[in-house]
Structure formats: structure tokens, C-alpha cells
Amino acid sequence: MTGETDTEADALQELLDYLKGSRGFDFSGYKKSTLSRRIEKRMATVGLTSFGDYQDYLEANPREFTELFNTILINVTSFFRDPSAWERLTSDVIPRLLKEHPEDEPLRVWSAGCASGEEAYTVAMTLAEAMGDDAFNTRLKIYATDLDDDALAAARHGVYSNDALKGVPSALVDKYLEPNTRGLAFRPDLRRSIIFGRNDLIADAPISRIDLLVCRNVLMYFTPETQARILERFNFALNPTGFLFLGKSEMLIAHRELFSPDSLKWRIFRKVNRHNLRERLDFVASEGAEEPFLRSGGVRAAAAAMSPVAQIVVDRTGVLVEANRRARDGFDVADSDVGRPFQDSPLSYRPTDLRSAIDRAYSKKLPIRLDRVRWIDHGGNERVLEIEVAPVVGPNAEPLGASISFSDVTAFVRLTADYERSKRELETAYEELQSTVEELETTNEELQSTNEELETTNEELQSTNEELETMNEELQSTNDELETMNSEVNARAVELDRLNLFFEGILGSLGVGVVVIDRQYRIQVWNATSGELWGLRADEAEGRDLMDLDIGLPVRRLEDGIASAFGGSTHLIEEHVEAINRRGQKFECLVRVVPLRTRSGDIYGSMILASPNNNQ
């Protein structure tokens, strides 16, 4: 059993790798159980049972990719979904948001995972009620993003059926939607403030400077690791006073360093501001952008002159070409020394031999570091220097000279010595405290173990809740599909009833007995006139063999004519026979046999028309 499961998991992973390589869709952050169920649902639709066979099917049928992605990306949404949560947002959060936000600055909202747009338009109606139309049109921008291009296309039109709008209060429908040939459309003047676009929450950069971020029942489809990465981006996207509005199964208990609960019951959170720039930009890949001020030679020279690190520059011919202020003051470098051979300067051999270090830097084309060089300065103080000799390379990789930096690490060396001394003094005290620390560590580990067990249990419960919510949305999606199919079946049934009534009316108005049989002589149609002539109702005759009927019509005499019709005879087949009607009266009956053909000319039955002979 385990081997079979591993094989299925490998086949699923191979299929996911194929989707990523061929179409660029990376589903590695999605929960495998959810992906497996959604893909298996699509496989059942096309009649396949293994992931490997389905991959072959995708390779042979490129259009199947669209159907598969529509199945995986569950677009279950509605207006004012979870009305109590929207009521809390409307009555408490939005008034505070507008009060804290400067009136002269734009208000930015992001609806992440907007599906077909219902959530974005819900936010729009809610804010329009709170702000008024003028402020809405001038200050508000709503960015609505999703991964499904088909859903975004539907969202951009902003047209919805009455059934889709059943969750919207009638007052809002009358105020913000207008009649359209396909339903009701969101008002164009307000629609211009909503921008729909494609965004992959895992791979694409987040929209920045957001005041309200709405992302409901989206995170539950991702693994905990992927959820953490997305929440990092959400934290970066929000302004310091921003709000995050999640779905009812998303609690963020494990991410308190990013968001703090504002209303945990309704899944509304505030951003936790992180002042460390490195933490805020963890997910941004550095591209090595060149800062404009570094292009200015004057600023660069001034910065070098003011550097706290002593630095000199020697060109390739051995001439001292530059010495910053720190080098001039620390090593008695006079203005007259600049422009003269470096070897004539005392600095070339004191505090250490720098000429050989320069030669080694040129030969290796790498910086040379001289550590812990001791030197007595002109004030008689012992200093400890770290010296770095770095070759200055030109555009053609040819050395133009050497830059020599002198870092004074005297204070660091002294602190290191003091630290070592203090460390030795503390070792004795440390040994005395060790036993106490070990006891505390044991207690702490026990408490930590208990806490981890509780956190694990909580995460398992949250994961189970997310899984149940996912399955509920899948069931809702399936139910929507079944309701659509049921509506189509009902419509076709009504049409079929109408056609049957029309057909019965035609047959009843012919005034002749009409009997339709198939090639096995089973009666398919028996009209009312036939019932009047022969005394059998339609439900008594239909489905029986014509030759087995005991009626006043001598059916055996018609057998040859029917056989000729089935044989493809092109002549009208007529028979005059003596018949007895249902009242026992004899009369001469004219019987015509007409073959029934398909559009392609194949004969699939015959129609027998019986009427009293008018020439009698």
C-alpha cells in the first residue's frame, strides 16, 4: 500500500513539474491533497484514472490546459460572503480607516484572489456608502487581482445575474447597478476606480502602500510554508495603519510577528510594523542597482577625503597621487609628498613594508590584507592597524595603481584583551551557576515541549479546518454546476413537452389513423384516430408487435407492403382491405405504407396511414 501511494505521489509531482515547465504555472505551494482531488475530478470528466495517462492526454490536447486550470483554481465567491464579517468591516473598521487616513491622500485597497469580481465590487459598494460618490471617484483605487484569466475577464465586464446578486441588499442593487442585456452591470462611473489585473501571490511582487487588503479563503489552499511567504508580502504591502481582512478559516495564530488581531472572530488584523529594513525587504531580490550619487566624481572625492579610514592611492608608476585627510594627519603626509615617488616617503616602510605588499597585489590582482600591524604614532602611542592593499583596475583589467587603507583597530584589540580577561573571571562563576542553569533548562524544555505539542495540535486543527473549508467550496462549486445542468434539463423538458403537444396536435388533425413502427414491427406511435378506428388506446398499443394485434384491420395482409417499404421501395404502397371498426361495422379501408428515412437516406421505420375509402 505504501509503495502504491509513493508511486501515485511521484506521478502527481511529475505532472505538476510538467505543468510548470510547459505552461509556467507553479503549483508547488498548493496543498497536495487539494491538488490531487481537483486534478482527479478533471481526470474523471475525460475518463482517465492515472496521472501519467492524464499527462499524455494534456500533451495531445492543448485545450485541456484551460479546463484543468479552471478546475484547480476554484472560483467560488459571492457578494457579501459571510455577511456578519462584512457588517463588522462596514460598521467598525472602515470608519476607523477613514478617520486615521489623511483626507488629501488617496485610499488604496487590494482584493487579492478576487475570482470573478464579486468581492472587489462588494468592497467598492461598502466604501462608496461610507465615502460618498465624489470622494470615491477622486480618492479611491481598488486593485483586484487573480491568477485565472477567464475569471478576470468576467470581473472586468462587471455584469451579474439576479441570482448572483441575491446576497446584495436591494437598496445597494438599485443604487450601484444598472440594467444590462445580460443582467445587471456595475455603474461605469464607479467602475473606473477598480483596476483588475493578473497577480501570482507566490511569484509576483505585491502591490504597495495598501490601506485595506482583502484576501478571503485564499490562503487555505496553500501549504504553511507558502502561506508564510505570502503573509510576508502582505505585511510589506500594507501601510503602517493598514488592515488585513481574511476568510473565516484563516486565523494567523502562528504569524503574530506580522499581524496582530483587530477582531479575531471576524478575521480582521492590523499590520505589525517592522522597523528593520532588511526584514521588510526579505523577499526582494537585489539587482545591484547603481545609486545616482555614486556617478558624481566630485561627491566621491569629497566622501573619500572625509572617510574615517586613512587611505592613500599610488599609481602604477609608483607615484603617490592621493591621501585623504585621515592619512595626512595620522602619518604626517604633507601636500608636497603628493605627486612624488612613494618609495621616497617614510610611509612606504613605516609602519610596515608597503612596497612589497603593492607588488603582491599587482601580481595576484587581488587585495592583500596585513593584519595586526603595531605602530608607534608621532604622539608616542602604540597603535594596532589592519592594512589592506587593493589593486585599482581599469576598463581593460590592467592595474592602474593601488589603494592602501589603514584601519585603526587599537580599541578593538584592547576590548578583545579585556573581554578575554573578563571571560576567564566569569568562567569560575559560570561553573557555580551551571547546575542551577541545568535545572532551569530541564524545566524550560519540559514547558517548551508542552507548548510545542499545543501549537502542533492547534496547527493540525487549523489545517483540518482549512481542508474542510476547501472541500466545502469544492462541493459548492459542484452544486453550482449541477444546478446549471438541472436548469438546462428543465428547459429541454419544457421544450420536449411543447414539441410533443405540437406533434400530437398534428397527428390528431390528420383525420386518418397513423401508426409508426420500427424495423422490428414494434409500434412507436398510435394516434387518437387509430384508437377510434380499432378500439385500442395509445398506451395499450405502443411498444407491442403490430402483427400480434387482434384488431379489425387485417395486419397480416400488410406484411408484404411493409417489407417492401423497409426494402427501400420508392413507389407509394397502397392496399384496399376489408376492415371492421371498433363498433363492429365493416368498411373498405385504404391503407398506405410510407418508409421513414434519416437525413442520410437510411430507413429506420415505416408509417401506416389507414382511412375509410373515399371512393366507396
Structural account:
- The chain is α+β, with helices and mostly antiparallel strands and 616 residues long.
- The protein folds into 4 domains: 2-72, Chemotaxis Receptor Methyltransferase Cher, domain 1 (Orthogonal Bundle); 83-276, Rossmann fold, CATH 3.40.50; 303-408, Beta-Lactamase (2-Layer Sandwich); 508-612, Beta-Lactamase (2-Layer Sandwich).
- Helices cover 45% and strands 22% of the residues.
- The chain contains 19 helices and 20 strands.
- The strands form 4 sheets. Strands 6-2-1-7-8-10-9 form a 7-stranded mixed beta sheet.
Give the topology, please.
Elements: H1 2-23, H2 32-46, H3 51-60, H4 64-72, H5 83-100, E1 107-112, H6 118-131, H7 133-139, E2 140-146, H8 149-157, E3 159-160, H9 170-176, E4 177-180, E5 183-186, H10 188-191, E6 194-198, E7 210-215, H11 224-237, E8 238-246, E9 259-263, E10 268-271, H12 277-280, H13 297-305, E11 310-315, E12 320-323, H14 325-331, H15 354-364, E13 368-376, E14 382-393, E15 399-408, H16 410-509, E16 513-518, E17 523-526, H17 528-534, H18 538-541, H19 559-566, E18 573-580, E19 586-597, E20 603-612
Parallel strand pairs: 1-2, 1-7, 2-6, 7-8
Antiparallel strand pairs: 3-5, 4-5, 8-10, 9-10, 11-12, 11-15, 13-14, 14-15, 16-17, 16-20, 18-19, 19-20
Helix pairs in contact: 1-3, 2-4, 5-6, 6-7
Tally of domains: 4
Query: What's the CATH H-level homologous superfamily of the largest domain?
Result: Vaccinia Virus protein VP39
Number of strands: 20
Ends distance: 84 Å
Binned, the helix content reads 40-55%
Q: How are the strands of the largest sheet arranged?
A: 6-2-1-7-8-10-9
CATH fold-type name of the largest domain: Rossmann fold
Main beta-sheet strand count, sense and barrel state: 7 strands, mixed
Roughly what fraction of the amino acids lie in strands?
Answer: 15-25%
Estimate the mean pLDDT confidence: 82
CATH architecture assignment of the largest domain: 3-Layer(aba) Sandwich
Estimated radius of gyration: 44 Å
- Name the CATH class of the largest domain: Alpha Beta
Name the overall outline.
elongated
Structural class: alpha+beta
Total count of helical runs of at least 4 residues: 19
Low-confidence stretches: 276-300
